[in-house]
Amino acid sequence: MTEEDLNAPDDLTADAGEGLREHGVRTALLDLLAEVGTVTATEAASRLGCSSGLCSFHLRQLARHGYVEEAPRNGGRARPWRLAQDTASDKPAEERFGDLARGLEDESWQRWQAQRDRAPAEWRHDEAFSSLAYLTPEEMSRVADTIRRALAPYEDREQRPLARPDDARPVALITRLFPLLPQAEDGGTR
Prior knowledge:
- α2 runs antiparallel to α6.
- This protein has helices at residues 3-6, 11-36, 41-48, 52-64, 85-90, 93-115, 137-151; strands at residues 38-39, 68-70, 81-83.
- The protein is built from seven helices and three strands.
- It is globular, with a radius of gyration of 19 Å.
- It starts with a helix and ends in a 39-residue tail after the last helix.
- The protein has a three-stranded antiparallel sheet.
- The protein is mostly helical.
- Pfam families: HTH_20 (PF12840).
């Protein structure tokens, strides 16, 4: 059995945890395109350490949502991709990638809600929670750093499937820290 076989999606991954993998691969592809300009699925796979089929699938999905497009070909069968021209300049890269990430997170959460009854019994719960705290900007940054440090021991498992316990599954870990803006009298924000 190869490492790629161990990384192949199973039923739970396909139904409930797929968004985490999609998010990571798609974000990595967008980052790579921002860095190098154009890339084929095979080149992306080599640089990112995943299969060319997985990269090809996610490049097509990103194209479907308007984030990437096919680049002009120089002959042959190679199919190069680049950031879509209309998205390459209208927003800063961080904002575009943030919008995509939030959309994928929301899509994954909705998929989980719709399909959780298909997951094995031991996975049919979630640990969603939220909290309100009064923080300074520095404190908010410290909270974010604390969360990142708490998750750090598990980060390498995405790239190193053999480091995962046998019963480990991809779990979406989403934290959004943002200040609440006051409501204006007309219903908008000030």
